Amino acid sequence: MSGTEGKGVVKDSRAQPSLGTDPFEDTLQRLREAFGAGRTRPAEFRAAQLRGLGRFLREHKQRLQEALLQDLRKSAFQADLSELILCQKEVELALRNLHAWMRDQPVAKNLLTPLSSAFVRKEPFGLVLILSPWNYPVNLILMPLVGAIVAGNCVVLKPSEISQATEKVLAEVLPQYLDQSCFAVVLGGPEETGQLLKHKFDYIFFTGSPRVGKIVMAAAAQHLTPVTLELGGKNPCYVDDDCDPQTVANRVALFRYFNAGQTCVAPDYVLCSPAMQERLVPALQAAITRFYGEDPRASPDLGRIISDKHFQRLRGLLGCGRVAVGGQSEESDRYIAPTVLVDVQEAEPVMQEEIFGPILPVVTVSSLDEAVDFINRREKPLALYAFSRRSQVVSQVLARTSSGHFGGNEGFLYQTLWSMPMGGVGHSGMGRYHGKFSFDTFSNPRACLLSPAGLEKLRDLQYPPYSATKQKLVRWALASPGCTLL
Ligand code: NAD
Known about the structure:
The protein has 15 helices and 18 strands. By secondary structure, it is of the alpha/beta class. The chain folds into 2 domains: about 10-230 and about 435-445, Aldehyde Dehydrogenase, Chain A, domain 1 (3-Layer(aba) Sandwich); about 235-425, Aldehyde Dehydrogenase, Chain A, domain 2 (3-Layer(aba) Sandwich). A 7-stranded mixed sheet has the order 10-13-14-9-8-15-16, sandwiched between helices. Strands 5-4-3-6-7-17 form a 6-stranded mixed sheet, sandwiched between helices. The termini are far apart. The relative contact order is 0.14. Nicotinamide-adenine-dinucleotide (NAD) binds near residues 131, 133, 161, 193 and 231.
């Protein structure tokens, strides 16, 4: 049961569930009607909602920080860095660009359409469902919400039931800052979400595991609802022999152990030669001690595992390979020490599932080719990292593999750039968001051609019967170069 009472309940202070009935129906109906009445379409309305969201983030910053501390032992600084500031910036970006993004885009024409107006109108889909996970429980629900609002949609938000403290703030406070006829926060776990997914939405935006992503996509298919799936997986990290081990260790450790490793784009495992492993392991130990001290459990900068279930799963993974660094765990506060595993076999569980915790296995390979083969034998990852002082090695890994994100001598710092699309490929997901990419995701790019009602004489060419001359002229006009001016 969630921390907030009443799963499957709409917490927007207007709707109450009645026994024996579908708890979502009334709310969804209200939102559909609001969309049908065109309430969310005007730019002023969208701007007002975005400003409301910005106020929510500012006025409840401390409450959100406390919730994140409670859920994930995330420090206030890390909460700001990875959740609150990014959301605030996303709101500001959307407000700055709202009118430009909404504007019809003129497109090239040909000589069959000289007097017509040809443009793409970005229109809202309608009723959008956003389902989010627990690891960045503010960021991963509000970032897509910004996109859905700026694109003019009505939105149902379903936060993760696992990050209970954050779920409570989102359910109790957020609706007060948004127009409740157009936006609702609903609560629930797998069962209630399954019930919710039986309804027809106009767009579903899901962030979570590939397993649940398949459930969401299957439910969406029943209504032919388009989806964005932001999923996870195992993110490889190739380390070339020609690297400074301490530099690599610092960067890998920072991004592997941030949020106690519970980051979808974190490096999941290292691929390197046995010689590099020898040099990298002590460097990782040094980086961990430098970042989190001799006793990482006492560090304010190291998070905790979200739930007992995930703690037990991760503790089980500590038995894979051989512990080279860390390996300690404490059930009472769901602590797992920043850990490095060596002598790991490909068939072991730690290399079969997404780790999603502060454990870093090192798998040895004999060459760059073997590393690339290893990566390409597996599902396409959400993120891929390559470290080398030789730029051609980084370029080769980039050229010979595929992933949603790529970092050369870098971790997931790209998450701080609104100019970068966020999203996976293949098994790690489909669709993109952040900044303008979000606006495009939540908009139907409607192809519009508006022609004069008269001037019928000019159309003669297009009507049968098609003489040889007509055919020639139509072919010529069709092939004419695009022109936006005519
Ligand atoms: P999850 O898939 O278990 O849950 C995500 C959402 O789906 C939650 O709101 C949950 O209530 C709901 N859900 C769970 N089981 C369901 C079911 N059977 N039917 C319908 N809905 C269900 O994911 P999680 O454990 O919350 O998050 C971890 C996963 O999310 C990891 O795989 C991680 O890589 C991935 N992730 C991806 C991104 C990304 O941007 N690509 C970001 C964060 C997390």
